[in-house]
Amino acid sequence: MSKIQKLYKWSLRPTPGQSLWRAPETVSFSLQGKRLKDLGTDRRITTSPIIGQCDGLIHTASGSRYELVNVDPEYEKLYPYAKERIFKSINKIENDKT
Predict the structure, then answer these.
(1) Three-class HEC string of the chain
(2) How does pLDDT run across 32-82, given as a tens digit for each residue?
């Protein structure tokens, strides 16, 4: 199982590279944010597509697991209670799925 990575100043976004003409139910989403070593820089990472959530962690298609530490303030202004909303909208998976 992969190491848990903490993601700071995160936001949710459609996975890059998807066609604009995709059916809405097939759109995948990724997280964008900073790892601890990136704080204080302009560097942000974009995860692979989210496949689900388990035990308070977000699991991605690459097998990575992310703990969402603090939401990007601008994202939170646009989407209040972002963390709670994400966990309500992402399917729960079993721990051994990644």
Answers:
(1) CCCEEEEEEEEEEECCCCCCCCCHHHCCEEEEEECHHHCCCCCCEECCCEEEEECCEEEECCCCEEEEEEECHHHHHHCCCHHHHHHHHCCECCHHHC
(2) 999 988 888 889 999 999 999 999 999 999 999 999 999 999 999 999 999
